[in-house]
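Task card 7
Instruction: Convert sequence to structure tokens.
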Amino acid sequence: MNIKPRSWPPGIRLNYTAFEFEHDFSGGGVNYNDKLAFSSLSAASDLYPFKTGFRVSAGFRYSADPIDLTGRTERDCRHRSITVQGSALGTLYGDVSHNKIQPYLGLVYT
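Output:
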């Protein structure tokens, strides 16, 4: 194995990823409508410290994708002696938040 350093010039990678998905389903008496639309941009620099397939990568990924959840039930809900009609509950909403900029560090052998 030849272990002479060869880290210069470093490799530079830019990447853009996009994905869309839509799916309707129901479970437990709740109707769901899923819509996913992800996109992200990433940049990384690769250093090759040896003349092998080993590299160290560092960079970041930017992703401002909102994750919104929507559900509606037609099933009646009962708690102790109180029953509420599902149609009276209306639509349930939720969301998921995350950091828009995520750091990246990778140790790779190819």
